[in-house]
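Human: Not sure, check this?
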Amino acid sequence: MALHTVCSTADLAIGEKRLVQASGQAILVYRLEDGWFATQAKCPHILAPLAKGKIVDGHLVQCPFHRARFDIRTGKCTQWANWPPGLVDVLNAFRGEKDLRSYPVRVSGDQVQVEIA
């Protein structure tokens, strides 16, 4: 496992996210009220860019395409894709509910680091 410095603590305010590259992977880094977190950057439904999604309820990231929601702190899916009605049901038949991959984050001084296996 390797630690990758992905940004400075000054780079993100609470409630913001940033797309970064580490070990050849696109990763989203988030700063929430209760700390720093990192997840895969694409929604597991149809690989939509979560960087274009929004943070809701202070700890969920919502996919900009089909409104799936994931807990940023754990990667757990809290609401699977549900928009637009009808069309998404067809897509869901092929893409079952999945959680986001999450990565351990640590802050060392003013550097935010993500651990990648």
